[in-house]
């Protein structure tokens, strides 16, 4: 019988985690400087799964030189049903109507599930930090070293393909730029590394709801906009990157790429964690939402909110209280890091004003594969849609 290698994990120190409920480091055994999947046993897999599904974001340090083909295999330890299709699509997406059309020239040929993302040059879910906010930071504020989250999201197009359980990032090059600061609505400031990837936990976001709001969330299904990223491609976000505060710039349905309702994403508002079924995760993308359907468990009555502006404002009301320094984990990249995050347990965003710096280049590999298993509702009420797509 294979003997476990001694691979282990340790949650980040409490001064790093604060109240984010996020973060652990995977410690590889000394004889394995670069992760070697062939040597891992079933019990090592369980340790990895426990580390991730309890802590939502894990890092393995010093993985410079890891073979890109290893990364999709590593992802499958957490999601055995992952397809070998990058969630942004099989081929390079080059449709200029889609703001995710990043992957043109951005895939590793030997490992097409792995994309290359960088600051400025490529556009994808992460986008260009300076372009998306309704009121961008002023030049003066930028020069003082402030930054913001760009757009909080899960890695998924909300159309045709299901979100992956995990995304894996590997830092090839990190910006050599001084630390920057995020200012929060309560006036506190958080120092973050330039180009940090920021995360918040859906479980923590759920905890911050009132009992009534939790009940509403548990009974609600979220329908996303048809071709969601085309739909919002002319829209601008709030300062915190959580929502779209104004209505009117949305692409008209007839101007979207061909679509059908059966391919439009629809998910419960609160998701179940694969290893912790008692912990609810509020997982909703505040910029791409379209419609809410809520069932009253007492009467069985179903109510629908399909005014997009109102839908956004309800979701924003639920999510905006997470936006505080102590609830956000901002990963300070070191070259060689492999970061695995639970795409169905956190929202994430890039941060960093890097364009004006000569040494501001940031290059990451990103592997996010569509899953064949849809996110499961935390509460399996009658009629809940757990198929991942609108039922037609
Ligand atoms: Fe992303």
TrEMBL record:
Pfam families: TauD
Coiled coil, from the record: none
Annotated keywords: Dioxygenase, Iron, Metal-binding, Oxidoreductase
Gene3D superfamilies linked to this entry: Clavaminate synthase-like
Cofactor: Fe(2+)
Molecular function terms, GO-annotated: dioxygenase activity; metal ion binding
Residue intervals of the TauD/TfdA-like domain: 22-368
SUPFAM superfamilies attached to this UniProt entry: Clavaminate synthase-like (SSF51197)
Family recorded in the similarity comment: Belongs to the TfdA dioxygenase family.
PANTHER family registered for this protein in UniProt: ALPHA-KETOGLUTARATE-DEPENDENT XANTHINE DIOXYGENASE XAN1, DIOXYGENASE RV0097-RELATED
Protein name: TauD/TfdA-like domain-containing protein
